[in-house]
Amino acid sequence: MPVNVSVSDFGTLPDGSMVQAVTLSAGAVRATILTLGGILQSLQMPGRDGCCAEVTLGHDDVAGYLTSRSYPGAIIGRTAGRIAGGRVSVDGVTHQLSQNEGDNTLHGGAQGFDRALWRLVAAMVEDGAAVLRLSHQSTAGDQGYPGALTVVATYRLDAAGLTLALAATSDAPTPVNLTWHPYWNLSGAGTPVGDHVLQLDASAYYPSGAGQVTAGAAPVAGTVFDFRVPQQLGDILASADPQAVAAGGIDHVFVRGSGTAAVLSHPASGRRLTVTSPAPALVVYSGVGLAGGPPGHGGQVIGRHGGIAFEPQALPDALPVLRPGATFDWQMTLGFDTD
Ligand code: G6D
Predict the structure, then answer these.
(1) Residue of 59, 181, 297, 305 marked catalytic
(2) Which residues are annotated as a binding site for beta-D-galactose?
(3) Would the pLDDT of 213 be above 80?
(4) For all residues of the chain together, what is the average pLDDT?
(5) Is the separation of the CB atoms in 131 and 158 below 8 Å?
(6) Known Pfam families for this protein (predicted)?
């Protein structure tokens, strides 16, 4: 399989810094990643008709990413999800984090990892794969978090698919719960994902409470969130189930089993996305709040439910604390195939 890596300038940040774009290709799959936020800006894959379509939501300029409130394609940190009141306690000391969603902290605060300019460490062909390595240094006190955190992100594309691996180390105890936030629309047309079919390896989920801060886990059996059997997304997005109505669709934490985390398919095109990760939880977000954001690829209007995100992460009631000498490892692998 032909594998290639190329680097180009994408655009400048308000302070004049250049954002670079690195394109990894393996066969008919092509991924473009930005040094801004480690963002997956584009993913092109073939369908039944052979031609390649854009299947991840993104923007064609830096302004789109700085304007968006949906974290399209971004590496999320230090802590994914919501933290009530933005307060975390580490070893008995309470830290007030950046509160960027009312009183809560969402996805690492107002200037989370999605807004950082990551350092391009290496872009190369290695062992038959197209590889990109980025790094980010989050200083002590960044967004209110204790300790200085160093993160290395490694994207790897080969015949097996696209893997993102994250490795973090810290010089003091700090909460860490990293994830990745690409949105997927396998139609390539940007139409709502109601025509996609989803299967999840999850027998429990966390119903959302006030402010979308989750309470305890509950079985999916007997609920519209039972995706152990494949379901058409349109059925849940239009469901009268109180949890689906309150979230406007799907915006829930699912408790992972030991199998493939998620399989998303688009019967009309034959495209299928397979998600695997060792993380114990998977947030599934059906893009409830995507409408009204900046234009997508080629000026495409991104509407409500215009994409679906799968965010492997820690369980919401078990926020990991990383201590000096340890490494926080996280990984997600995406398989792309066509029936
Ligand atoms: C995550 O679960 C959250 C959503 O609630 C949020 O709106 C989105 O990120 C931007 O998926």
Answers:
(1) 181
(2) 181-183, 251
(3) no
(4) 96
(5) no
(6) Aldose_epim (PF01263)
Averaged pLDDT, 204-222? 83
Domains of the chain: 3-338 (2.70.98.10)
Ligand 1: residues with CB < 6 A are 70-71, 212, 251, 283, 285, 289, 309, 311
Percent of the chain whose predicted confidence (pLDDT) is above 70? 99
E strand residue ranges, 160-246: 161-170, 174-175, 179-181, 183-184, 197-200, 202-206, 218-219, 231-232
Burial 68-86 (b: 16+ CB within 10 A, else e): bebbbbbbbbbbbbbbeeb
Tell me, yes or no, if 101 is annotated catalytic.
no
Task: Report the distance separating Cα 138 and Cα 226, nearest Å.
Answer: 38
Token pair 């963002």 in the structure block, residue: 39
Ramachandran region of residue 248, left (φ > 0), alpha (ψ -120 to 50) or beta?
left
pTM: 0.97
Tell how far CA 68 is from the center of its chain.
Answer: 14
pLDDT of residue 211: 60
Residues in a beta bridge with 214: 208
Q: What is the pLDDT of residues 45-87, one digit of tens each?
A: 999 988 789 999 999 999 999 999 999 999 999 999 999 999 9
